[in-house]
Amino acid sequence: MVIDWGWIAGHLDDIVAALWQHIVLVGIPLATGFAISLGLGIWAVRRPRVYGPITAVTGVLYTIPSLAAFALLVPVFGFSMLVAFIPLTTYTLLILFRNIVAGFQSVPSEVLEAADAMGYRQRDRLLRVEIPLAVPLMMAGLRLAAVTLIGLATVVSILGSGYGGLGQLITDGLQTFFPTKYVLGGVLSVALAVVVDLLFVRTERRLTPWAGARATGAVPA
Amino acid sequence: MNEVARWLADPATWQGGTGIPVRVLEHLAIVAASIAAATLVALPVGLWIGHTGRGATLAVNLANVGRAVPSYAVIVIVLPFSLSFSRELGLNVIPTFLAMVLLAIPPILVGAYAGLREVDRDLVESARGMGLRERQVLTGVEIPLAAPVIVGGFRTAVLNVIATATIGAVLGFGGLGRYILDGRLRGIGGTGELIGGAVLVALLAVGVDLVLAVVQRWLSRRADPSLGPARGYRDLPAIPLADGAP
Q1: For chain B, which residues make up each domain, given as ranges?
Q2: Distance from B102 to chain A by nearest Cα, in Å?
Q3: Which CATH number applies to B2-9+34-235?
Q4: Contact yes or no for A52 and B159 at CB 8 A
Q5: How far apart are CA B158 and CA B171, in angstroms?
Q6: CATH superfamily of A23-209
Q7: Chain B residues with CB-CB distance to A75 below 8 A
């Protein structure tokens, strides 16, 4: 397998464009998924009965193989970006929802009682006590969801055209038997996952200064 | 919906080498083969790391790398190597299989490692104190108690592998992904095939995962009888919680 460095040097614009497309392809579903999961998480903490059903539904959505999920939406939306955005959003829900709920549950009950005793209203307690203390577990969920989505988003290019991100490099490289393109697509995808993961770790340290130099370990399977 | 019904009603959809029964078997066969191959590698290593506590960093890093590598990229990058094995199978079956094995190893290994690590160390020590040999500690105490987590690793691996086998259709592998790709190529006329194939893949994945979930629940109950009767999916995380701890 020979990498054609000359091609890479001559096509930096296209490569950066594919990378940026991939970031959009992952970023919008991740943000949407986080907003939905935060809402569902707050609901599940207030009404524990809904936790089971939400986990079951998001679990089934998570189980559907990516290529099938994209294919199911093609007749509904044609080959538009929604075909990619909707399944990529639903893939985040199980991971984010469960981690957000676990984050809220990790807040000690003494802290909540202290907040109540200090006269916090429910909304202020949520925004200024519960969410900040749930940040480490929420961030762990975001890291896992982001890394998962970056890999899954490469599959979009198999069905779609024009907005496949780094997957487009893989598909084009495969169709033209040009290893440089598909190896580059795979390598950049892994590199993006590593960089995004590190960015989330740094953000978490910023958001939880009280945690000090506590080591942020890797996420188990 | 009409197109899907028409496609399903067509006898040709069900017969011969491209019929649904054959495609389902192809799909399940490559899933079973790749999980078996991955287990041969990953399970002994994962159990050893979990039992001895040595090489834990390796297990954690492998889990992260395994998650970050896209299966589509693995299938395609493996292609030139597999073509050198065999001109015929190297184009479809072998790259799909190799990618599936590579992607199934991390979750199985990490499941075995994490399961054993979670077993109460006092129990392991008292088993040793009772005179059990290391092998007996492993098979009689650690593995039964860790079984639900170990099966959890298998569930993740099987999920990944079913999805990857679908993507294998890009290279001409059979299986249910074939219908999605062929339907896509036939344009409007292939809508029934495209959707029908996608529904079949989704049903297969959800069905297999449900079976493994039931196995996992049964093992959890055996490992910890105090759990009491099942309360639905609550006990059955499809994926372990990301808790930020190594």
Answers
A1: 2-9+34-235
A2: 15
A3: 1.10.3720.10
A4: no
A5: 21
A6: MetI-like (1.10.3720.10)
A7: 191, 194-195
